[in-house]
Structure formats: structure tokens, C-alpha cells
Amino acid sequence: MSNKKKAKAYHTAVSEYNESTIEKMVDENYIQHNPKVPSGRAAFLSLLPKLKTYGSKIENIRMLEDGQHIIMHHKWINAAPFGFDETAAFHIIRFDSNGLVAEHWNVMTELTSPNASGRSLLDGATEIKDIEITEINKSKIKDLFKILTSENVEKIIDVIPMFFKTDFQQHNLQLADGVQSLVEAIEDESIVPRYIKQHAVFGEGNFVLSISEGMLSGKNTACYDLFQLEDGKIAAHWNIYQGIPTENLANDNTMFNY
């Protein structure tokens, strides 16, 4: 069974609160990077009754495979255990050499009204294509973030048109489509993070996910930015930015450490 098929079976089991299936699929010493959940399979299984009580379920929107990692772009409904009615989320799982889920990372945020261009955190293109240029597309995003993490605002604004289509589709809820809206947000520095370090880049074909650390509204933030590329430029962008907690942590694995 492919890792994608296993990942689908895994998130289906979570939505069905199927403890026996999860026990078979998850390593006993599973490493957890959600800072509010302890590591280990038992700690994860202990969450299922609460999810069942509220009827919390996953709707998968996009799924990428990069080596042993599966990247899932999810919608959670009945998400009261997370403090929301509905959420957008990125979940990443790593399969070990035995085919078991060995490690997990995630971020999530509330689903609210569409942005000024009528786009949500989850809608838009889903088809994976251009598999043969996966590494080229990943390299483009790495090059972009070298600039975002090392240059001043003026330089960043100068080079943005090199990477984005002029009318690219923007799914950030506080922005509108196109380069001009993004440039104005970068100048403002209150909507787009000031990126500090890129921790990982995952991709499959025309989709690439960057995972970074940055500052947003004065807070240290985990930044997940998903890009769809066409003809060598970014045609669409989705994001979730989640503050990094520093107190009452359930593990010391950090939200990164890929």
C-alpha cells in the first residue's frame, strides 16, 4: 500500500474514532510536535473520545507525498475540541521503515469568511501535476525564502514579481489577489510575517509547502505557506500562521525539528 493510501486510511480512522486501526498504524513511541499533546501513541488515542463526543471529522482537501512524509491540507468540522466550529489545518506525518506513522506535525486556524477576492483558506486548485519538475519547483521556493529571510523589505518588494504571477490567487484571508496586495502587506508588516528561518520544504509536482519560523504582530510564529506553481511562477498561495507557545508544553520536540 502506498504512503498516500495509508495516510488516507489513517485520517479516515481518526474521523471514525477507530482505535484498533490507529493502534495498528501508529508506532508506540510516535513523536508528537503539537506542543499541547504528549508524545506516544497512547496520548494520541486518549484524544479520540473527545473528538467522538463532538463529532469532529476530517475532510481532506489536498495531499502531497514527499519521500516518507505525507502533507495533508484538511478541513476539520465540529472542531470544538480545538476551540472552533470549523478549521483549516495542515497535518504532516512521517512513515518509518516499517510503514508506521512515526512522527506528526500540525498547525490549524479558524475558518472564517472569504477574503476580498472571495477565496477561502481551502478552496482552489487541487490537481497535482508536473511531477517531473517537483525538485525544480521546490528549489524556486527555497530561493524565494532565502530572500525573505535575509533581505530588507525594500529588496523583498523588488524581487516579489520575479516569483509570483501578477494576478496570482491569494487565499490569505486578509489579502486580495495579485502582487500589489502582497506588496502593500509586506510594507505594512502586520499581516505577512517577517520570516526568520525556513525549516523545511516539501513538494509534489506543482504544489510546494514551505515551513518557516517568523515574527507576526510581535509573536514568534510557525508559518506554513503552500504554493501552486505554473510556468515557473507562483499561481496560488494558501497559508496558516500559528503562534508558537512557550508555556505549559506537553513535549519538548518543538513545532519544527524535521
3D structure, described in words:
With 258 residues, the chain is of the alpha+beta class. The chain folds into two domains: 108 residues, Nuclear Transport Factor 2, Chain: A (Roll); 113 residues, Nuclear Transport Factor 2, Chain: A. 27% of the residues lie in helices and 38% in strands. It has a five-stranded mixed beta sheet with strand order 1-5-4-3-2. Helix 1 packs antiparallel against helix 2, helix 5 packs antiparallel against helix 6 and helix 6 packs antiparallel against helix 7. It is globular, with a radius of gyration of 18 Å.
How many domain units?
2
Report the top-level CATH class of the largest domain.
Alpha Beta
Q: From the coordinates shown, what is the CATH architecture of the largest domain? A: Roll
* Rg result: 18 Å
Widest sheet, order of strands? 1-5-4-3-2
Percent of residues in helices: 25-40%
